[in-house]
Structure formats: C-alpha cells, structure tokens
Design a protein that fits this description.
The chain has 287 residues and is an alpha+beta fold. The chain has helices at 25-39, 48-92, 96-107, 162-187, 217-220, 230-235, 261-273, and strands spanning 113-121, 128-135, 145-149, 155-159, 193-202, 206-216, 238-241, 243-245, 250-252. The strands form three sheets. It has a five-stranded mixed sheet with strand order 1-2-5-6-7, with helices on both faces. Strands 3-4 form a two-stranded antiparallel sheet. It has a two-stranded antiparallel ribbon with strand order 8-9. Helix 1 crosses helix 2.
Length: 287
C-alpha cells in the first residue's frame, strides 16, 4: 500500500516496427505447396498428368506469389509505422485527445481505478498538464491489526491505534498519488505537470475529494522512491490539499467551491459512481 511510488515507468518513445524480411527459399517452398494443394483440390490421385501440371504451375508461381505477399506485409508495416509516428508526434506536441487516450491506456492496470480526464496547456502559465482522477478506498482498506512478535519471538497480531491507521492511510494515499503522477508524466512526454484529484466513496452513491495537487515534473525528477516520504512530497506539490482532523489525524473531505473546476468532476463522478464496477477496497495493492 505504501510502496506503489517505488515503481518505475518507461518513458514513452518512438516505436519503430521491424521491416519484414524478404521471402527465403523455405517460405517460397511453403507457398508452392499451398498453391499445389489448392490447385489439386478435388483432383483424383490417378489423374497424374493434371497433378503434374499443377505442380509445375505451382513451382513457377510460388516465387511471384511469395513476393506479392511480402510486398503486402511491407505496405501494412509502413501504414502501421505511419500511424505510430503520427501518435508519437501528437504526444510530442501534447495533443489533448492523444495524450488522454495514451495515459488512460497506461492506467488500465493500476491498483486503484485511475482515469485521465483532461490534458492541455494552461493559458496563463503555458504549462502543459495532464489531469488524473483516482478512485481510492476509505480507511477500511487499512487493517485494524498488524503483524508483530511476542517477547518470546512468536508471531502475533497487534491492534493499530486510530492514529496509526490514519497515518498509514495518508501515506498509502500519497504513495498512490506519486505513482499516478509518475506514470502520467512518463507517458505524456511533453507534459510539465500532473494534476491529481483523489476521490473516495461517500455513502453509496456519491464521492468526496480527499486530495488535490499539482505535481511538476521537476518535483519528481531524479528522486529515489525508497528514500523519500511520499506524504511530504505530495504535500509539497503546488496547490496541494489534504485535510487531516483531530488528534488522530483523520483524512477528511476537502471543501470544494461551487464554481471550482473540481466540482464539475465530482458531480460527474457521483452521477456515474453507482453504475461503475468497484474494486474490492480490501484487495491488496501491488508492491
């Protein structure tokens, strides 16, 4: 739960397809056998003259047919390469539709349900951003007990205090935020910042925000995940918000203004929340 930010995500790069190799003797022979079998389908074995003619014909046409098929493969590969280059160019220029699609594809296998909802260029700062919404679980995802050992060295379970559970919950949430931002920026190569909003269930039909922040690429660059405190990092992000209340430091809902852009996202999430498949909040996260 607290080590998701240890993950490394490969930076998007231009994909180059291999050029199909030309037909070799073995492939030409295979084509020849295919042509011969097709030409002799339904020809009785005793009609040797016809079958001999078919074999001669197949041998003559096999190199031509093999070359034709090879040419088709080359053209198909060139067309696919064109599409890949077009997508790569769109990522480099931060074309919103392509960026959203690519980041969403990368999010598909995440431990928490994450969605890229926006990408673009800030008209005031010129920053290129991606916006991700993470659906996170509640405090129940943190077990009430932790493994421990007795003074005699035997394994046992110790009950966590409310403060300990809330601290672990906040750290786990922060680890998820960091991993989400790192993955988004690895895919969106031209983006300079990842804007992350974390929501969790509130009742049975709505969600509430528990974290919002803008993580710039330079904030995450060259930082060893194992040596940092994820909570410190996400709270040092620009416009970072997380409200922790009381002596137990419980993570509570963020206040959201009625005219805030986050309000529109929350309303949309709440409208669709009840119909979306929900992950088991007790399912252990990767790592």
């Amino acid at each position: 739960m607290t080590t998701l930010h240890f993950a490394t995500f490969p930076q998007s790069s231009r994909q180059v397809l291999p050029v199909p190799t030309g037909p070799d003797p073995a492939s030409v022979q295979a084509v020849g056998r295919e042509l011969y079998q097709s030409a002799t389908a339904g020809v009785p074995v005793w009609k040797r003259a016809l079958r001999k003619q078919a074999k001669t014909w197949a041998g003559q046409w096999a190199p031509i047919e093999a070359l034709r098929r090879h040419t088709g493969k080359v053209i198909a590969a060139q067309l696919e390469q064109w599409h890949l280059d077009e997508r790569w160019q769109a990522l480099q220029t931060h074309e919103p539709e392509t960026v959203i699609e690519a980041v969403d594809e990368a999010f598909a296998d995440n431990a928490s349900d994450s969605t890229c909802v926006d990408a673009g260029t800030d008209p005031d700062t010129g920053a290129r951003y991606v916006t991700a919404v993470v659906s996170y679980g509640g405090i129940d995802m943190v077990p009430e007990h932790r493994p421990d050992t007795t003074p005699g060295g035997k394994p046992t379970l110790r009950k966590r205090t409310k403060t300990d559970r809330n601290a672990l919950y906040a750290t786990a949430l922060a680890s998820t935020v960091l991993a989400t931002a790192k993955e988004a920026l690895a895919v969106a190569v031209a983006a300079t910042e990842a804007r992350v909003l974390v929501v969790r269930p509130h009742g049975t039909e709505t969600v509430e925000p528990v974290y919002a922040g803008m993580l710039r690429r330079e904030l995450l660059a060259d930082r060893e995940g194992r040596s940092l405190d994820p909570l410190d990092v996400v709270m040092s992000a620009e416009n970072a918000e997380m409200v922790r209340k009381g002596s137990t430091r419980e993570v509570v809902s963020l206040p959201v203004d009625a005219d805030s852009p986050a309000r529109a996202i929350l309303d949309a999430w709440s409208r669709t929340y009840d119909s979306r498949p929900q992950a088991d909040p007790c399912e252990p996260a990767d790592g």
